[in-house]
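Q: What would this chain look like folded?
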Amino acid sequence: MAILSKDEAKKIIDKVLSYSKADEMSVGLNGNRTGNIRYARNSVSTSGESDNLGLSVTAVFGKRSGTATINEFDDASLEKTVRRAEEIARLAPENPEYMPMLGPQTYLETGTYAESTAKINPEFRAQAAFDSIDPCKKKNLTAAGYMEDTTGFAAIGNSKGLFGYNKSTNVDFSITVRTADGTGSGYANPDVTDISKLSTKAATEIAMQKALASVNAKALEPGKYTVILEPTASVELLQNMMRSIDARSADEGRSFLSKKGGGTRLGEKLFDERVTIITDPMNAELPLSPFGGGGGGRFGGGGGEGIPQEKRTWIENGVVKNMAYSRFWAEKKGVKPVPGPSGFIMMGGNQSLADLIKSTDKGILVTRFWYIRAVDPQTQLYTGLTRDGTFYIENGQIKFPVKNFRFNESPIIMLNNVEALGKPVRAGGNLIPPMKIRDFTFTSLSDAV
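A: My prediction, written as C-alpha cells:
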C-alpha cells in the first residue's frame, strides 16, 4: 500500500477534506518503499526494505493552525485525525504571517520516476554489493559501502481545490576503499534517478584507484593553492550557499546578499562571469518535484504549500538574478513567491576532470571535503577537511599524494577565483562541474586518511 496511484491518493485526500469543519484545511499524503544494503570489511553487514505511508492534516481557523499525522487509513481514524488537527488549531496562538491556502494550480509533468529503479529487489542489491566488494578483495583492498534505493509518491490537496501528485525514484551509493595497511583511501558517491545509469563496479574502481594512489602521502605546507575540486568536494559548500539565497534574510541584513545600509545585492555581479546556476524541473539528468514551497523537497516529499516549480535562473554570468521568496515575504514585497532551489544545475564547459589536471602547472586535486562547519554564516565562511584522496599536481600530471588539509574558505570567494569549469555531473542531488580554483585557502594539516 506504500505507493498509491494518483486516483487512490486523491480519493483519500478528498475523504479527509470532507470531514473538515475548519475555515481551511490542507492534506499531505506520502508513501515510499526504501531498500538498502550496507557492507564493511568486504562483507555485507545489513540489508533491508521498508514500506511507509503517512498522512498529515493541517486545520486552520482564522490565523490559528494545527497539524496532526497518522498512518492508519480507515474512516474512523481519518476523521479522528481531522478532529485532532482542529482541536490543536483552536488552542494555537495566531500566526501573524499566515497566508491563505492556494487554489488549484497547474503542475509540470516531470521525469522523477524510473520503472527500473522501482523494480530493484534484494537480489539486485546483493549483486550491486558483490560488484563492489569482489574487485576490492582481488586486489587486497577493503571496501565499505552503502546503497539506498527509494520509490515513493507525494500528494497534496486542500479545501480550496488544490491537488498535486508526483511519483519519484532515487538511488544513492557511497563507497570508501582502503588499502590493507589503512594508509590509502579512496571515495565515490554517485546518485541517480534511474538505476540503469549507476554501476557500483565503475564507482568502486574509481575509489580503488584513489586508494592505491594515496599511499605514502607527503606533507605540504598549508597556504593558498590552485585546486581542482571534484563535484563531491564542492557540492556541500555550494548547497550551503544556495540554501542562503533567500530574500527575507537578505532584506533583514542576515545574508551574504544583504547590502550595507539596507537593501539587497540582487542584480549585482558577485561571482566570476562563468558562474551560472539554474534550476530546471524538466532536466533529464536532474528531474525535480513539480511542486514546492515550505518543504517540497527534491523529489516531491511533502509538497509544502504547493507552489508550482518552474525553470529559474538564480545566477547568470556571475550576476544574482533571483532569490527565494516565501508567500508571506513575496506579498510584503509585491513580487511573485519563489520556492528555494532544492536541486540546482551549475553550468560548466566540456572539459573532463583529466583535462583540468592537464592544464594545471601546480595545484592540488581534492576528492572530497568532510566535516564541514560554519565559521561565519553571513559571509558563507566554512571550515572542513580534505579526505579520501588528495594529490599534488605538477606540469599537468598527478605527482604524488599529499596529507590532508584543513581549509577555511567561502563559496563566494571560491566562485570569484574560477580558472576553469568542466562538464557538470550529478552529485548530492545537483549537477556540478569539476572546478579549477585559484588561491584556495588551506590553514593546517590533518592526520586523517
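Residues 75-91 form the longest helix (17 residues).
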